[in-house]
Specification:
The complex is a heterodimer of chains A (107) and B (117). Chain A is mainly beta and 107 residues long. Helix content of chain A is 0%, strand content 50%. Chain A contains no helices and eleven strands. The mean pLDDT of chain A is 98. Chain B is globular. The chains are: A mainly beta (107), B mainly beta (117).
């Protein structure tokens, strides 16, 4: 099984900060990587697919990069409404696996 | 408008079966993969099952293989997750989702399953 390792587990940043979240795969997953945002009490919402494609309706301050084993989600200017837990998902091979998440809070 | 609505959750005893439903609307259900993902209270996300658009292929992780069965009725625009021999560790919010990881990715609001005596 492919293990997905997210870091950090917890991040506190200020409004307006540039924030970078990491997701590393235990083996090559090409660009089959998605990023999700989950706010408290809500279902996850897709932000980025195919590692760097912005989902329709998602603000342009969110961007994704990477391929192979190392991936990054960047929020260019953190907003209060970005408080959430962020998960990555690899769908290169079965079983599909999620990272353990990064909880993002406002300082 | 795309909608996925889960139902069928509840409190069950260990060893019991339970069948979840996922009613779809607003898109061509027969052309899309259906997936089930769960989240234990306060924990992360775990993929549980996937079925291809025509229902001919199914996929499961080892944690549920042999106990869970995913299906879809394209005529009724409804997907199902039959869960057998439930264990306490199956306690979670269960989400159905369309086409995980791609641009057509969309999740329902989830249904809670509690396994306890």
């Amino acid at each position: 099984d492919i293990q997905m390792t997210q870091s950090p587990s917890f991040l506190s940043a200020s409004v307006g900060d540039r924030v970078t979240l990491s997701c590393k795969a235990s083996q090559n997953i090409n660009k089959y990587l998605a990023w999700y945002q989950q706010k408290l009490g809500e279902a996850p919402k897709l932000l980025i697919y195919n590692a760097n494609s912005l989902q329709t309706g998602i603000p342009s301050r969110f961007s994704g990069s990477g391929s192979g084993t190392d991936f990054t989600l960047t929020i260019s200017s953190l907003q209060p409404e970005d408080v959430a837990t962020y998960f990555c998902l690899q769908h290169n091979s079965w079983p599909l696996t999620f990272g353990s998440g990064t909880k993002l809070e406002i300082k | 408008e795309v909608q996925l609505v889960e139902s069928g959750g509840g409190l069950v005893q260990p060893g019991s079966p339970l069948k979840l439903s996922c009613a779809a609307s607003g898109f061509t259900f027969s052309s899309n993969w259906l997936n089930w993902i769960r989240q234990a209270p306060g924990k992360g996300l775990e993929w549980v099952a996937s079925i291809n658009p025509d229902g001919s292929s199914t996929y499961y992780p080892d944690t549920v293989k042999g106990r869970f069965v995913v299906s879809k009725d394209n005529a009724k625009n409804t997907g199902y997750l039959q869960m057998n021999n439930l264990r306490s560790e199956d306690t979670a919010m269960y989400y159905c989702a369309r086409t995980l990881g791609g641009s057509r990715d969309y999740w329902g609001q989830g249904v809670m399953v509690t396994v306890s005596s």
